[in-house]
Amino acid sequence: MRAVDTNILARYYLQDDPEQSRIATAIVQQGALFVPKTVALELAWVLRSVADQPAGKVTACLAHLAGLPGVTIENREQIEAAIRHCAMGLEFADALHLAACEQCSEFLTFDDRRYVRRAARRGLKPRVRVPTE
Q: What separation in angstroms does the CA of 121 have from each of 41, 87, 94, 113, 114?
């Protein structure tokens, strides 16, 4: 089994460099790949922030990756939970953080009150909260 970096998967999904995209496609098609959870997180960021892909396309790429035969994803259950949370309007990074913390009572953040509201409206666990004290 071989592990892949974000740039391999980005070239596979974006098909934006003829030579590297061809090689990346061959690698993915050969299977027996391991995708670290951090690579999935970075892939979502690259697709969204660098390649300016819409959130729905990012989620579709991650779901496709998770469904590819011959691909093992680290903490697959967390990645799949994060993909489901994205379908509910969360950003992938926030969704993955939340999925990784499912055994906790709360997820504390100063970052994003919208994240707090979205997670609460959807009943996601653990509860997301902005600490005040």
A: 24, 14, 15, 12, 11
Answer yes or no: is 32 within a domain. Answer: yes
Q: How far apart are CA 122 and CA 124, in angstroms?
A: 6
Question: How many domains are there within the chain?
Answer: 1
Q: Which two tokens stand for residue 1?
A: 């089994």
Q: Could you give the maximum distance between any two Cα atoms of the chain, in Å? A: 54
| Residue linked to tokens 């892909």 | 53
Burial 77-90 (b: 16+ CB within 10 A, else e): ebbbbbbbbbeeeb
| pTM summary value | 0.89
List pLDDT tens digits, range 3-60: 999 999 999 999 999 999 999 999 999 999 999 999 999 999 999 999 999 999 999 9
> Domain range holding 87?
2-96
Residue 131 phi/psi, 5-degree rounding, is: -75, 145
